[in-house]
Design a protein that fits this description.
CATH topology of the largest domain: Aspartate Aminotransferase, domain 2
Number of domains: 2
Largest sheet: 7 strands, mixed
Helix content: 40-55%
Structural class: alpha/beta
Number of helices: 13
Mean pLDDT: 94
CATH class of the largest domain: Alpha Beta
Order of helices and strands: HHHEHEHEHEHEEEEEHHEEHHHEH
Low-confidence stretches: 391-395
Bound molecules: pyridoxal-5'-phosphate
CATH architecture of the largest domain: 3-Layer(aba) Sandwich
Distance between the termini: 51 Å
């Protein structure tokens, strides 16, 4: 039996583009290269062009996954054991895992007042506190939104921090008309099967924006070897798989279209749900100087209704989710290592309000219709219950 959940993007994607795997094997048969061959080189070049036609990055280095790309970015900035790294508490845990992997200490900042990015005002406050100066700041472009890059970049310059962009969820997000990934000293992309550009397995790239960093970054994914296969620096083994590189090269042709399709699904949602604003529901939208790539469609609902909407929706077969139930500073392992951390009020509040509706580029208008009809029915019932509870005489 073929698995085919219409809301499951990796399954739908494999169904439509699985033939690329067969093509990839053909290409590898004719090149004779199975590791760091023509596929990886061609994908790295194509991705660099895709990122910036006019001013491509200094290097695009294919690596095994997005977490490794972040790790190598941190190492490229000279971040090591005990160094502090400013990062948002509200992100996929992978961002924290990379910081811990290099032995650094995450300094968690709150969420911005609007949008879901790191709050520049709280970062500024953290940088004024006593203690060793952090080495780097990771700006996570969460859900496909862009962070306030101009402001964060100015802050980093002012305080001597390196900026790293975590673009794992933001492949195709435009900031001032250009794909994100060019502002940081390094940027990390993931091609995990749910991401906007998805491999049929694991993959990632490290984007290098300073020419002086390019050689060291390339060597860092392959034992620290130079061209003569002598170890001249620290390195790991984190190579983008040749087969996945060929798959990604094929899928890159469809990426622009797929981002446009994601944006179309978001428009369908907006048409049907925008009147919920009066019920305290906030829908995602483009920012003043950026365009959403809609990796996820995360709405905000009143916190007293969220868990109920989630549970009742799921029990009726609506594929709702919460990205993410715990912020990084609330993860048990982080607490065990660094002790409980207080003082992130906006993050704590927002986590109770977020709810993800299904979005991927293959969804059709009738499916969004059905999702919205069920969701509106759910919200209607919750509102009625709330009204009942508030009515005079209710116990
Ligand atoms: C997916 C993701 C990563 C890690 O990517 P992997 O390829 O799974 O290692 C890092 N950061 C964010 C924000 C992510 O969503």
């Amino acid at each position: 039996m073929a698995a085919s959940d219409p809301f499951n993007f990796p399954q739908q994607d494999l169904h439509r583009h699985g033939g690329l795997v067969v093509d990839a094997i053909e290409r590898m048969r004719s090149s004779g290269q199975l590791i760091l061959g023509e596929g990886v080189t061609r994908f790295e070049e194509a991705f660099a062009t895709w990122l910036a036609q006019e001013r491509p990055p200094a290097a695009v280095v294919g690596v095994a996954n997005g977490t490794d790309a972040l790790e190598l970015a941190l190492r490229g900035c000279g971040v090591g054991p005990g160094d502090r790294v400013v990062m948002p508490a509200h992100t996929a845990y992978a961002t924290t895992a990379a910081v811990l992997r290099v032995g650094a200490v995450p300094l968690f900042a709150d969420i911005a007042a609007t949008g879901h990015g790191i709050a520049a005002d709280h970062v500024r406050q953290l940088l004024q506190e006593p203690g060793p100066r952090p080495k780097a700041l990771i700006a996570v472009h969460l859900y496909g939104e862009a962070c306030d890059l101009a402001e964060l970049n100015a802050l980093c310059d002012e305080h001597g921090l390196d900026l790293i962009e975590d673009c794992a969820q933001a492949c195709g997000t435009l900031y001032r008309g250009e794909p994100v990934g060019s502002w940081g000293r390094f940027a990390a992309f993931s091609f995990y099967p749910t991401k906007n550009l998805a491999a049929f397995g694991d993959g990632g790239v490290l984007v290098v924006n300073r020419p002086g960093d390019a050689e060291a970054a390339r060597r860092s994914r392959f034992y620290g070897w130079d061209g003569r296969r002598q170890a001249v620096q620290f390195g790991v083994n984190s190579r983008l798989d040749e087969l996945q590189a060929w798959v990604l090269l094929g899928k890159l042709d469809h990426l622009r279209r797929q981002i446009a399709d994601r944006r179309q699904v978001a428009r369908w949602y907006r048409e049907r749900l925008q009147h919920l604003a009066s019920d305290g529901v906030v829908l995602p939208a483009d920012g003043p100087d950026w365009e959403h790539s809609y990796h996820l469609y995360v709405i905000q609902v009143p916190c007293e209704q969220r868990d109920r909407l989630l549970q009742e929706g799921r029990s009726k077969g609506l594929p709702l989710a919460v990205h993410y139930p715990l912020a990084c500073h609330q993860q048990p392992y982080v607490n065990e290592r660094f002790g409980p951390q207080a003082g992130l009020p906006r993050t704590d509040e927002r986590l109770g309000r977020i709810l993800s509706l299904p979005l991927h580029p293959y969804l059709e208008e009738r499916q969004i219709d059905a999702v919205c009809a069920s969701f509106l029915a759910l919200v209607g019932r919750v509102v009625t219950d709330a009204e009942l509870a508030a009515a005079p005489g209710a116990s």
